[in-house]
Amino acid sequence: MDVQHALESHPSINGMCDYVGISRSGYYQREKRHNHQSPRKLRKKFIQGEIKAIWLKSLCIYGAGKITQELRSKGYKIAERTVGKYMRELGIHAVYLTPWTTTTRNSKFDKQLINILDEQFNPLRPNAVWCIDTTYIPVHDGFVYLTSIMDLYSRRIIGWDLSETLEVSNVIPLIEKTKHSRHISKPLIMHSDRGSQFTSEAYNQVTANMTLSYSKKAYPWD
């Protein structure tokens, strides 16, 4: 689900009250008259709307602790365990995104991953250098991975794949499809970071006719 769309579809009740110029207590009274619900149930419904709005605004990253802080900053008196309970009832939870980190590898293996591109970002022809990369995209119920291939000559994305895991099995068909569509006839450099999907045996096989280049260790931005 698109997060911006979700935000627009689930505005906070507090925000809606401000927009139409009524107080929260006025909202409670109106709901009570129309729905015949107890004040406790109305307050719970109101708070759950606020919780979901805060969660969506955080791109689904906030958990009960951060949401509790946000609610308290708005004047609500609520316990973190209550927020956690309401989140479970709503079926939402914090999405923990793992940042890029270096991992321990055999030093001999590291020496095999050479940065052939060496920050030479202006090739002289198309299909001389491709760059492949994977990006996290937060969605309503978690996150997905966008793997894309860019021709460095034109700076255009020439292939992409959206998947729910980082497994190399999602990368192989993308490379095969892109190779087929581009009709490669000359030597090609494939540049990537040192992610496990780009250093696997399967990746080496599908790029067997290419020259592999890797970002420097602990420096994935080149």
Which CATH architecture of the largest domain would you pick?
Answer: 2-Layer Sandwich
Number of strands: 5
Do you know the CATH topology of the largest domain? Nucleotidyltransferase, domain 5
Helical amount: 40-55%
Query: In what range is the share of β-strand residues?
Result: 15-25%
Distance between the termini: 31 Å
Spell out the CATH superfamily of the largest domain.
Answer: Ribonuclease H-like superfamily/Ribonuclease H
Averaging pLDDT over every residue, what do you get? 78
What does this entry look like structurally?
- With 222 residues, the protein is an alpha/beta fold.
- It has two domains: 3-90, no CATH class; 107-214, Ribonuclease H-like superfamily/Ribonuclease H (Nucleotidyltransferase, domain 5, 2-Layer Sandwich).
- It has nine helices and five strands.
- Strands 3-2-1-4-5 form a five-stranded mixed beta sheet, with helices on one face.
- Helix 5 crosses helix 6.
- The model is unreliable at 1-10 and 99-108 (pLDDT under 50).
